[in-house]
């Protein structure tokens, strides 16, 4: 091809998108739209494919999101909503025909009503920002997770995030009192209820919680707040198994009612990797045990919380065979201990794009589930030694394979079979808190109830008949209008 013909070909390949961007800029304002060149040097987040779109829009109000979606519907342009871009299942991955709707310019905490105990926020507010604002007036969102600095409230609603405190105050679904969502045709679904009780017909807000932006874009949220605790004490314990960890949880819940704040469990290969990388001696207690349990309890001040935690543990220490214990002596030490659990990026640096799984298992069945599953994974790959960790008190177990991803199709099916096949019968879940996105779609199709899948497809067709909202996420089959 001559240079001139090549340049014509490039022009004709790019000009429809350039025209589109011009029309979109006319609709939303020039500064709100970033083209491909602007995206090249920005951080795409957890998955490089997040920024494969032809452009990114940054609407700054519900009305602007509504104009954007109405324009997408008119033009037949698909739209991928994005919050912190740190989701783990490809829910924010975009394609060259897609426009990103980045909620980062909608980051206002509109109101904290201390008398009612609620916050009204725009979807792009980070969890850390809401925690800070609520804490300043003696309140707390009641939900916490390691990605607090990047995760946005809109993204957390869209994945029904759970995190560390779900066993106390529920998952995101239980924290949301009201919701505003822009629908795929640009209409605004507005249910900014501020009360917990509502039995006024179908509670449709729940359809959008955990929908990963496939049914519309969450723009504003009413979040229920809890009282802020005065102080917290932290300990890491060496234990033999999940059963022992659950006995410790039950003891502390009975002994210190309402004061247990976290019960995070890590199995040996996880601890050996994260703790060793962070400079802890993994040959010493508590790090040398089969499992390490991270515990946090609240109290009136740091010393009172620490004393209550130490006393509570002393009562069961020998009976339950706790093999070692570090109680943090300062807030800085507590943070350092928690980093053993929270610095999960260490695993992904060792094994880029390591396949990861996020299941829920009823507490009493965790040990048996893991020994069966890990043995089966070794049959699939004799070198399998997954990193296993999670939120013990609600049965949420994370399994990260010690190999780089992605898996080829045959191996993925075998691995998924080992991890997922018993879960439904056990009353567990194949996705506890990360969502389905792209990477768990095949598993959902294979292992979820077929009637649930039919209803999901019908709901998607009803709300998004031309399929413009985050297409291909959650549902494998393309919706045909
Ligand atoms: C965590 C993320 C992986 O619990 O959900 O660290
Ligand atoms: Zn988690």
Written overview of the protein:
The protein is of the alpha+beta class and 481 residues long. The protein is 37% helix and 20% strand. The protein has helices spanning 3-28, 36-40, 62-75, 127-135, 153-159, 166-169, 172-175, 205-208, 242-255, 268-277, 302-314, 331-342, 345-350, 366-380, 409-420, 423-426, 441-447, 450-463; strands at 33-35, 55-57, 78-82, 98-102, 109-113, 118-122, 139-140, 176-182, 188-191, 217-224, 226-227, 231-239, 260-267, 291-299, 324-327, 356-360, 387-391, 396-400. A seven-stranded antiparallel beta sheet has the order 15-12-14-13-17-18-16, with helices on both faces. Strands 5-6-10-8-9 form a five-stranded antiparallel beta sheet. A hairpin with a 4-residue loop joins strand 5 and strand 6. The chain is globular, with a radius of gyration of 24 Å. The protein starts with a helix and ends in an 18-residue tail after the last helix. Residues 1-13 have low confidence and may be disordered. The structure holds lactic acid and zinc ion (ZN). The site of zinc ion has 4 residues, from strand 18.
Can you give keywords for this protein?
481 residues; alpha+beta; seven-stranded antiparallel sheet; five-stranded antiparallel sheet; 18 helices; 18 strands; 37% helix; globular; disordered N terminus; binds lactic acid; binds zinc ion
Q: Per DSSP, what share of the residues sits in E-state strands of 2 or more residues? A: 15-25%
Q: Mind summarizing the main beta sheet?
A: 7 strands, antiparallel
The dominant shape is: globular
Spatial ordering of strands, largest sheet: 15-12-14-13-17-18-16
**Structural class, from helix and strand content?**
alpha+beta
- What gap, in angstroms, lies between the N and C termini? 41 Å
C-alpha-based Rg, rounded: 24 Å
């Amino acid at each position: 091809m001559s240079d001139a013909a090549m340049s014509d070909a490039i022009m004709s390949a790019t000009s429809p998108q350039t025209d589109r961007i011009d029309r979109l800029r006319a609709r939303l304002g020039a500064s709100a739209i970033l083209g491909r060149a602007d995206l090249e040097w920005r951080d795409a987040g957890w998955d490089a494919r997040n920024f494969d779109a032809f452009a990114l829009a940054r609407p700054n109000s519900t009305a602007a999101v509504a104009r954007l979606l109405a324009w997408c519907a008119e033009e037949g342009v698909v739209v991928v909503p994005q919050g912190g871009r740190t989701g783990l299942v490809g829910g924010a991955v975009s394609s060259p025909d897609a426009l990103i709707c980045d909620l980062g310019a909608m980051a206002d905490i509109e109101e904290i009503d201390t008398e009612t105990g609620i916050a009204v926020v725009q979807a792009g507010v980070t969890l850390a920002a809401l925690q800070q604002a609520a804490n300043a007036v003696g309140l707390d969102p009641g939900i916490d997770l390691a990605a607090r600095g990047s995760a946005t409230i809109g993204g957390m609603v869209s994945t029904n995030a759970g995190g560390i405190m779900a066993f106390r105050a529920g998952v995101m679904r239980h924290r949301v009192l009201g919701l505003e969502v822009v629908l795929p045709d640009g209409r605004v679904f507005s249910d900014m209820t501020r009360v917990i009780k509502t039995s006024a017909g179908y509670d449709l807000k729940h359809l959008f919680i955990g929908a990963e932006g496939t049914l519309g874009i969450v723009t504003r949220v009413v979040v229920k707040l809890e009282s802020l605790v005065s102080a917290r004490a932290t300990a890491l314990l060496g234990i033999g198994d999940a059963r022992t960890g659950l006995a410790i949880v039950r003891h502390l819940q009975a002994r210190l009612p309402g004061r247990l704040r976290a019960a995070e469990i890590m199995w040996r290969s996880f601890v050996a990797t994260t703790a060793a990388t962070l400079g802890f001696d993994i040959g010493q207690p508590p790090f040398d045990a089969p499992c390490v349990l991270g515990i946090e309890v609240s109290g009136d001040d740091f010393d009172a919380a620490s004393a209550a935690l130490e006393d509570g543990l002393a009562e069961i220490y020998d009976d339950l065979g706790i093999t070692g214990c570090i109680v943090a002596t300062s807030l800085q030490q507590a943070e350092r201990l928690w980093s053993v659990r929270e610095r999960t990026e260490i695993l992904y640096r060792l094994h880029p794009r390591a396949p990861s799984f996020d299941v829920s298992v009823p507490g009493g069945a965790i040990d048996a589930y893991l020994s069966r599953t890990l043995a089966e994974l070794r049959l699939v790959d004799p070198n399998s030694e997954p990193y296993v960790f999670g939120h013990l008190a609600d049965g949420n177990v994370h399994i990260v394979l010690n190999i780089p991803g992605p898996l080829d199709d045959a191996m993925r099916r075998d691995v998924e079979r080992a991890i997922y096949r018993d879960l439904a019968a056990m009353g567990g879940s194949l996705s506890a808190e990360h969502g389905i996105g792209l990477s768990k779609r095949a598993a959902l199709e294979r292992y979820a109830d077929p009637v649930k899948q039919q209803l999901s497809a019908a709901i998607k067709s009803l709300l998004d008949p031309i399929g413009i909202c985050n297409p291909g996420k959650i549902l494998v089959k393309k919706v045909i209008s």
